[in-house]
Amino acid sequence: MDIRKLSQNIQEETEKIIVGKSDRIRLIVMSILANGHILLDDLPGVGKTTLVKTISIALGCQSGRIQFVPDLLPSDIIGMRIYNQKTGDFELRQGPVMTNLLLADEINRAIPRTQSALLEAMEERQISIDGEQFPLPAPFLVLATQNPVESESTFRLPAAQMDRFLIRISMGYPTPKEERRMLRNLGDEIPFDQVRPVTNAQELVEAQRQISQVHLSDAVADYIVALAAATRSHPQLKMGASPRATRGLYRAAKVWAAMEGRDFVTPDDVKTLAAPVLEHRLILDSGARFSGVSVSAILDDVLERLQGAPELEAVAHEK
């Protein structure tokens, strides 16, 4: 399977609707092929939900949607057993999580207890109802949207849940030129009927398996480990990158290389993906927060300090 061609096809179909966001779409396609969950963190009205719906059509997979609100219950997500008075038995009613692509819309409007109902599904690709486990369809991906924490009726996602998202990205406002083009193309009605499926669930699973064949040298692996270790020992970070983050960056770099048409990973692949994969997992200490230091600035500093690391020198001398 040609991963590069597949990723281009998905991106081209998505860009029939989404204007001027090629870099974000490319990261989302990478995350999907890496079997990683995605968090879209942005202001209302910039196209987060439209983007997710468009991609779900292009992927040709079963999709579901949950609108997160403060009174949403865990059973509204995973399902529950309901007593049937006619048969005298408890019947299983599975929730909307039983799908390939789950749109968790405005995920941080639900209370933390409800948000935590997704933890098992996101990590183990299964759910538990009354002590019984049910596997989720393959692939299973959560594409969540989140409003800024400062917005009304929002709750901060717990660190355990943030760590389960492979990437966090923001759409941002369009430029005036992009917005004019959007009005011309989408002003009256969003033409979702113009988007065609270019793959399916079975093909996506096969593509995800094929990624394991991409070569990632010991030197590049050491570079990823050094990057994670540098965040854990940074004096301005209370929490650095977890081992889950290290594995995520490892997998993401392989997919990125395949999307570039290569069968090997370079340090530049790792550096390109460091921010979307790591930033949302890093937590500033109180002193850094009060001084106005950003996680982005700290990560840039870490990458710069590692620029001349032995790991990179080893890669440079590899044949």
User: Main sheet: which strands, in order across?
Assistant: 2-5-8-1-9
Number of strands: 11
The share of residues in extended strands comes to: 15-25%
Low-confidence stretches: none
CATH C-level class of the largest domain: Alpha Beta
| Inertia-based shape | globular
* Helix proportion range: 40-55%
The whole-number mean of residue pLDDT values reads: 88
Radius of gyration: 21 Å
Q: Structural class per helix/strand content?
A: alpha/beta
Termini gap = 26 Å
CATH topology of the largest domain: Rossmann fold
So, the CATH homologous superfamily of the largest domain? Answer: P-loop containing nucleotide triphosphate hydrolases
So, CATH architecture of the largest domain?
3-Layer(aba) Sandwich
Along the chain, the helix and strand elements come as HHEHEHEEEHHEEEHEHHHEHHEHHH
> What count of structural domains?
2
Question: Number of helical segments?
Answer: 15
Report the major sheet. Answer: 5 strands, parallel
InterPro entries: ATPase_AAA-3, CbbQ/NirQ/NorQ/GpvN, ChlI/MoxR_AAA_lid, P-loop_NTPase
Domain ChlI/MoxR AAA lid: 230-301
Keywords: ATP-binding, Nucleotide-binding
GO molecular function, one term: ATP binding
